[in-house]
Design brief:
- This protein is of the alpha/beta class and about 300 residues long.
- It has one domain (about 75-310): NAD(P)-binding Rossmann-like Domain (Rossmann fold, 3-Layer(aba) Sandwich), CATH 3.40.50.
- The chain is about 45% helix and about 15% strand.
- It has 12 helices and 14 strands.
- Strands 3-2-1-4-5-7 form a 6-stranded parallel beta sheet.
Amino acid sequence: MKKVFITGALGQIGSELTLKLRDIYGTDNVIATDIRKNDSDAALSGPFEVVDVTDTKTMIEMAKKYQVDTIIHMAALLSATAEKNPVFAWNLNMGGLVNALEAARELNCKFFTPSSIGAFGPSTPKDHTPQDTIQRPTTMYGVNKVAGELLADYYYYKFGVDTRGLRFPGLISHVTPPGGGTTDYAVEIYYEAIQKKHYTSYIAEGTYMDMMYMPDALNAIVDLMEADASKLKHRNSFNVTAMSFEPEQIAAEIRKSIPEFTMDYQVDPVRQTIADSWPNSLDATAAREEWGFKAEYDLAKMTKDMLEKLRK
């Protein structure tokens, strides 16, 4: 990657990824785009353009303007939000992806878009979910992600576009507030622990979900995009994982630093149903073997870092 074009650059992943890539490749070589501009570091620290991903013409024009060689497509509606407006989610998630792939095809760019643990469904093996397994999701977000994986593969086989992707678990960050995902409780709980010493979980006790700390997720994107293409047997998308836990385990870890922290439950039926349809843990063997994936943070190390950063 030498010159990178990012859609959804002000979102949960994009806002941090933009800054990381500017540190690595240079400020002027990472063009951030989103549907609107704000006063965040991602928007103000380097080139930024307002781009609606459903507008093919503008997306291609902007990518041409900056002569990019890589497109990282992050713009999407997340799981819980998508269930509230599934038709809009389909139009945004799939229409935006097709447009981004078309831009990559026309400009001969490398291409990345994330998939998700949401691409799996209730009939998928729950523990150590294999890289290649049945994918029958029961949410619009999940349907979008499976279709997106297949579409990106199609552009690789049909048009030779160098497409790559990762199936992310729930992502936890101290930088960007939650954005409408099912796993957001694992972000919210840290904010509430510091501010209120109490959290009411919308996910039921005993519900295991795969999770990853944002620094590991960002490193995984860079490592995959820099990997030798000849060694990739898979492309769209690799399972990646760092930890799997249920709400009480994260609460117990927080109590090591905040002994007075308490938690109760008020289960959200929509997000609980989504969580119940997802795997408990993923098998990331293919990512480790094909491009050297490795996560640095477990639950204890992540909790320590989250609480330190949020207190500041």
